[in-house]
TrEMBL record:
Pathway: Carbohydrate degradation; pentose phosphate pathway; D-glyceraldehyde 3-phosphate and beta-D-fructose 6-phosphate from D-ribose 5-phosphate and D-xylulose 5-phosphate (non-oxidative stage): step 2/3
UniProt record, GO biological process: carbohydrate metabolic process; ketone catabolic process; pentose-phosphate shunt
Active site: 83 (schiff-base intermediate with substrate)
Reactions accelerated catalytically: D-sedoheptulose 7-phosphate + D-glyceraldehyde 3-phosphate = D-erythrose 4-phosphate + beta-D-fructose 6-phosphate
Single GO cellular component term: cytoplasm
Family designation: Belongs to the transaldolase family. Type 3B subfamily.
Keyword terms: Cytoplasm, Pentose shunt, Schiff base, Transferase
UniProt GO molecular function: aldehyde-lyase activity; transaldolase activity
Protein name: Probable transaldolase
Function: Transaldolase is important for the balance of metabolites in the pentose-phosphate pathway.
Compartments where found: Cytoplasm
UniProt organism field: Paracoccus halophilus
Length: 217
């Protein structure tokens, strides 16, 4: 399973990347807003840090505009993946950009039917949004499972990039189902290390070690 970080926070990306935890990065207009940075400048900086795919999202709503923006975004660095929305125009842009040899991430996927269209349009990645499906009291994880089943039925090459991840459990469940990639905020990825029994065990070891009066170095 590949780990993408869902952020435009350069310091957080660098910290995780130094640990070998970053196979790629995803950004979106809301994350760019949160970073307070210029999209081209911050995306270039991220691409300098991370070797894997860095998704940068178009903002035009028509196919022509998306293609124009996508072609500009790919000039930032060779590892740019153009992110387009799962609309009819987004699919047209996906087809055009992927036919030109660019990586495309089709985002805002909320149904297996949409995921089929993304694969047919040549998407490198499709991004089903788990958390936002859960937010409307449906089952985001079931969406991942349905897409996995369909893609496997037909050997579609598009990778399932499980997105809108809000918890460690989302990551574990997406991994069990066989999502190719997860993208999660840095805090959720770092949260994976936490376990109450690890903390309790460590406390005990520290207390017992102090009683020995020994030192290793
Ligand atoms: C994915 O590429 C999106 O940037 C992201 O996962 C959306 O997550 P959210 O629903 O928490 O905003």
């Amino acid at each position: 399973m590949k780990f993408f970080v869902d952020t435009a926070d350069v310091a957080a990306i660098r910290e995780l990347n130094d640990l070998g935890m970053v196979d790629g990065v995803t950004t979106n207009p809301s994350l760019i807003l949160k970073s307070g940075r210029d999209i081209l400048e911050v995306t270039r900086e991220i691409c300098d840090i991370v070797e894997g795919p860095v998704s940068a999202e178009v903002v035009a709503s028509d196919a022509e505009g998306m293609i124009r923006e996508g072609k500009h975004l790919v000039t930032i660095a060779p590892n740019i993946t153009v992110k387009v929305p799962l609309t009819w125009d987004g699919l047209k842009a996906c087809k055009a950009l992927s036919s030109d040899g660019h990586k495309v991430n089709v985002t805002l996927c909320f149904s297996p039917a949409q995921a089929i269209l993304a694969a047919k349009a040549g998407a490198t990645f499709v991004s089903p949004f788990i958390g936002r499906v859960d937010d409307i009291n449906l089952d985001g994880m079931e969406l991942i499972a349905q897409i996995r089943e369909i893609y496997d039925n037909y050997d579609f090459e598009t990778e399932i990039l499980a997105a809108s991840i809000r918890s460690v459990n989302h990551i574990t469940e997406a991994a069990r189902i066989g999502a190719d990639v997860i993208t999660a905020p840095p805090a959720v990825i770092k949260g994976m290390v936490k376990h109450v029994l690890t903390d309790r065990g460590l406390e005990q070891f520290e207390a017992d070690w102090a009683k020995t009066g020994q030192k290793i170095v």
